[in-house]
Amino acid sequence: MSFNIDGSDLKDSFTDYDYNINATLPNYEVAAPCVTQSIDKNFLATVYVLVFFLSLVGNSLVVLVICYNKFKRSSTDVYLLNLAIADILFAITLPFWATYKVYGWIFGAFMCKAISALQEINFYSGILLLACISVDRYFAIVRAMETVTQKRHLVKFVCLGIWISSIVLSVPIFLYKNDFNTRENIKVCHEDRGSHGTDRLRIILRFIRHTIGFFLPLLIMLFCYGSTIKTLCQTKSNQKHRAMKVIFAVVLAFLCCWLPYNITVVVDSLMRSNIVNQTCEVRSQVDTALAVTEIFGFIHSCINPILYAFIGQKFRNSFLKILVTKGVISKTFLSQYGRGSVTSTSGNTSTTL
């Protein structure tokens, strides 16, 4: 089903919190009192395609390495495996958004709902998995509860719970998103506001999203890693230090990519709630910030494998061992360039990191 809406409705919708609502539509100008500059659509499409390839290849390698070491997997590896799968699912959506930036939404109403919901699922699952990793490291290092971290079957249930929760939390996106025709007969994909609610509903959904899907998990991570750092400062275990170095890098990358976007959306919500007064200049700056910080959020899906490759010694060695097994490289090459042990089976350490 298609709907016709006027330009003023579209203008308000393009500055919402969803991933695709800042889309640059070809040869289309919105009739609104405030004119904002948009990022070049071809540039955005190029970035999305590049991130798609990097994320798909990098996270596929992570899945390969972790699955290959299935008998040595720690609880952290299980979480990282699910994190890689979430990023792969997100990467699959990027070609759709790249096409959307250039040609408008040409994939129909169901795909508009499904692709938007899939991105939301990735957001929730990513932050919740990172929070679980911080709790896992807290119990393994601070509480020294190795027997807990070794019960991988429990970790699988936790991951299942995260996926189910992420799907449930993404249901509003699936329900409220739809494709529309503009007056210029250009298809767009955004919220069906006329049928499902007002700005008040949007603000409520934003509050839930940022509370459950960002700030609460962030507080958990800060507490767990703060305690973990304090404990590590009192130990000389190089193995734990190396593993934590990668995990810290993963969390830091997530914050650098997603924190600016979330802060910008909070500012936007305050303006929409009339708590903060807005002018055309401020509105333009916030809209531009939403578009720019959204790109960093997209890029995050391909960063973790890069961190594993450059910082995670065990990841490199595990990958090289797979290449030796498949006959791609020789054992001599592995002995020269593959330094460090990957044979640890301790529940306190990751066979991947």
Order of strands in the sheet with most strands: 1-2
Spell out the CATH superfamily. Answer: Rhodopsin 7-helix transmembrane proteins
Quick one: biggest sheet? 2 strands, antiparallel
* Helix residue percentage: over 70%
Number of strands: 2
What name does CATH use for the topology? Rhopdopsin 7-helix transmembrane proteins
Shape: globular
- The secondary-structure class comes to mainly alpha
Outline the fold blueprint.
Layout: H1 7-13, H2 41-68, H3 75-103, H4 109-142, H5 146-149, H6 152-169, H7 171-176, E1 177-181, E2 187-191, H8 193-196, H9 199-232, H10 238-272, H11 280-299, H12 303-311, H13 313-325, H14 331-337
Antiparallel strand pairs: 1-2
Helix pairs in contact: 2-3, 2-12, 2-13, 3-4, 3-6, 4-6, 4-9, 4-10, 9-10, 10-11, 10-12
InterPro entries: CCR1-9-like, Chemokine_CXCR_1/2, GPCR_Rhodpsn, GPCR_Rhodpsn_7TM
GO molecular function: C-C chemokine binding; C-C chemokine receptor activity; C-X-C chemokine receptor activity
Subcellular location: Cell membrane
Structure description:
Interacts with IL8. Interacts with GNAI2. Pfam families: 7tm_1. The chain crosses the membrane at residues 47-68, 80-103, 123-142, 154-175, 203-225, 246-263, 289-311. One of its GO terms (molecular function) is C-C chemokine receptor activity. The chain has a single domain (7-337), classed as Up-down Bundle (Rhopdopsin 7-helix transmembrane proteins). 70% of the residues lie in helices and 3% in strands. It contains 14 helices and two strands, in the order H-H-H-H-H-H-H-E-E-H-H-H-H-H-H-H. The protein has helices at residues 7-13, 41-68, 75-103, 109-142, 146-149, 152-169, 171-176, 193-196, 199-232, 238-272, 280-299, 303-311, 313-325, 331-337; strands spanning 177-181, 187-191. It has a two-stranded antiparallel sheet. A hairpin with a 5-residue loop joins strand 1 and strand 2 (187-191). The chain is globular.
